[in-house]
Amino acid sequence: MTDPSAPPRFRLRVVFGPEDWMGPGKAELLEHIAQSGSISAAGREMGMSYKRAWQLVEAMNEMFREPLVHSSRGGAHGGGAVLTPAGLAVLEEYRGLEDTARRAGAAHIERLHSMLRDIPDGK
Amino acid sequence: MTDPSAPPRFRLRVVFGPEDWMGPGKAELLEHIAQSGSISAAGREMGMSYKRAWQLVEAMNEMFREPLVHSSRGGAHGGGAVLTPAGLAVLEEYRGLEDTARRAGAAHIERLHSMLRDIPDGK
DNA sequence: GCTCGATATGTTTCTTCGGGAATAACGGAA
DNA sequence: TTCCGTTATTCCCGAAGAAACATATCGAGC
């Protein structure tokens, strides 16, 4: 989850309620599902157990009016999962939020960064 | 930590490295220390153990070039803690970042919010 | 109808995190 | 010099959550 090699500068979680929130992990999971067409493959790519990946998917499917991920069992390759239009919309909205917030707060972040003891890197 | 009564809409963590980050909890702790003049009182007010509060203070003091909290033992009332100028600066910078990011992303958040299954409240 | 790969779900084990208790140090004030 | 309330630090333990393991289910294709 927390990538030790290239740490993200910015983590943003939108909290709607005690059980309902949208954050970086879920967004990344949606992206991997969209790309791989599989929950298990997405989890594997993220170093996340299938169970946890599935739990996150279930949580997202329940918190939004329409499910974000459509999954199917059996069949030619055992099954798979795809993003619904709602899933794609939520993902893009979240990514847009991240970009917007990051750009708007860049000056603040830079100022905080410059106050650190050991600056990890100039850029 | 997660307030059940009035859930915040927005949680923002600036990650500088695996060990170094600044988030809502640390910011709130700084505020309570500034107000109460005591680490233990601040922790108590936040429903946080003294141990944890102190650990967070230590982490902040080490990650920034200058310590954010100056603490002293003994004396008239047993001791206390105050924010250094650096502490005040970091706090204000973080709050500024939060405000800026929240305002900039308000439209995105509102759109995500409207896609929820059960909208907690109209406003 | 058997196989295969992925979804779906339960069970058990393990690790991590934080709380709580216990203790020491400190220094002004009575 | 004794008292007091806070900082500082260590140790033990329980709860929470993730990981690991174990099955069951499904459906196209062979």
Describe the structure.
Two copies of one chain form a homodimer. The first copy, chain A, has 123 residues and is an alpha+beta fold. The first copy, chain A, has a single domain (22-114), classed as Winged helix-like DNA-binding domain superfamily/Winged helix DNA-binding domain (Arc Repressor Mutant, subunit A), CATH 1.10.10. Chain A has four helices and four strands; from the N terminus they run ββαααββα. Chain A has helices spanning 24-36, 39-45, 50-63, 85-114, and strands at residues 10-15, 21-22, 69-73, 79-83. A two-stranded antiparallel ribbon of chain A has the order 1-2. A two-stranded antiparallel sheet of chain A has the order 3-4. In chain A, helix 1 packs across helix 2 (39-45), helix 1 crosses helix 4 and helix 2 (39-45) crosses helix 3 (50-63). Chain A is elongated. Mean pLDDT of chain A is 90; it is low at 1-6. The interface between A and B is large, with 43 and 43 residues. Chain B binds a DNA duplex (30 and 30 nucleotides) through helix 2, helix 3, strand 3 and strand 4.
Characteristic key phrases:
Arc Repressor Mutant, subunit A; two-stranded antiparallel sheet; DNA-binding; 123 residues; 4 helices; 4 strands; homodimer; alpha+beta
Number of helices of chain A: 4
Q: pLDDT below 50 for ≥5 consecutive residues: which ranges of chain A?
A: 1-6
CATH class of chain A: Mainly Alpha
Structural class of chain A: alpha+beta
The 3D shape of chain A can be described as elongated
Question: Proportion of β residues of chain A?
Answer: 5-15%
Write the H/E string of chain A, N to C: EEHHHEEH
How many domain regions of chain A? 1
Query: For the largest beta sheet of chain A, what order do the strands appear in spatially?
Result: 1-2
The CATH superfamily name of chain A is: Winged helix-like DNA-binding domain superfamily/Winged helix DNA-binding domain
Straight-line N-to-C gap of chain A: 22 Å
Mean pLDDT of chain A: 90
The count of DSSP E runs of length 2 or more, i.e. the number of strands of chain A, is: 4
